[in-house]
Amino acid sequence: MRFSLSDWLVWQEKLHPNAIDLGLERIRRTLSRLDWKPPRCPVITVGGTNGKGSTVAFVRRILSAGGYRVGTFTSPHLRRYNERICVAEREVSDASLIAAFERIDAARGEDTLTFFEFNTLAALLIFETAHLDAIVLEVGMGGRLDAVNVVDADVPIICSIGLDHCEWLGSNAETIGGEKAGIFRAGKPAIFGAREMPSSVEHAARTLNAPLLRLGRDFHWQVDESTWTWRGLGREEVALPMPALAGAVQFDNASTALAALTLLSERLPVTRTAIHAGLTTVSLPGRCQIVSCEAEWILDVAHNPAAARTLAQQLGVLDARTPTIGVCAVLGDKDLAGIVTELAGRIDGWVAAGLEGSRALSLEELVTRLTAAGANVQAQCPNVAAACSRALELAGPSGRVVVFGSFLTVGPALQWLESRCVTLT
Residues 54, 56, 58, 60: what is their CA dihedral angle, to the nearest 10 degrees? Predict the structure, then answer.
């Protein structure tokens, strides 16, 4: 009996005893048995705490606008597993994924691969025969021991460092920075896309003799009324159009993408026209995404205090709407108190939503933690769809609903909105 894609995914979730088990040994052994060959085209690996998805989106869209065929691997997904692997800006088919899974399962031997390792291996197999001009890989967690790090990056990027996944990566920014800098390679230039950087990142680059290019030191951006300017690495781009992704932080992410493309300009030259087209047509659901559906909706996957701070800043520049109701559901390892603190004054009332899965915070515990952190919890619902419905009742047509806390929160919210009154792409 042949597995459907959903059958494969359910089976993969149960194969390995731990949902998260960082390390490269299993994936290296499997790739060896598959006789996999490393990519010949340029590879950009994007790590960091926040900003990874946006940076990948900018790189992909600019290169695609320049006529290049790009493969991207991102995680997690919002609505469809297929979102994780794209070739030429198209999600791969169920059939392509199933064929890859069958090859991986036949080659893994006694290794019980994790869900993410299956995902990474499938991307690498699909990219191997896709005739690509460039590959962009998003790190799942950390860097040094993340499955993506099995591939040597031509340009490794760290977008930012914050406190997240502390159980696996360490309890402070220095330790986390060292783990994320594990994607650096000896002698290869690396990029850091935020203004605050732990010294461990500098130390890792120096140890590897990897030139480290930093936002605010080696490349810069400046907003000039309705346009902006990027400078760095011997290049200047003036009168750039505003990025299509919302929020001031997107200038950091777009600048980081431009730095990476500048480093690859001999192999992948892009024109000013391609840059303009990429900046104005880039899209990324679930990042300060604004949807009108009987009220104003803001959907953001923010799931740590730094991301919540960015979300709060964006809410602060939008036109005021009253009331603003927050729909929140998070995984159990998240700093919920820190998230609530960052959003203080931006959310009038909170609706707690239950999530399924072993890593999810129970609804009872979510309400307890929200209340302890000072949140005004006005309702609790068993799932995100019910929470969205209740939040809409509380907000009314003149209000705003902000949905955040996880990909597992925003994805179902997008589905609920689409089923109710809008078509989302």
Answer: -150
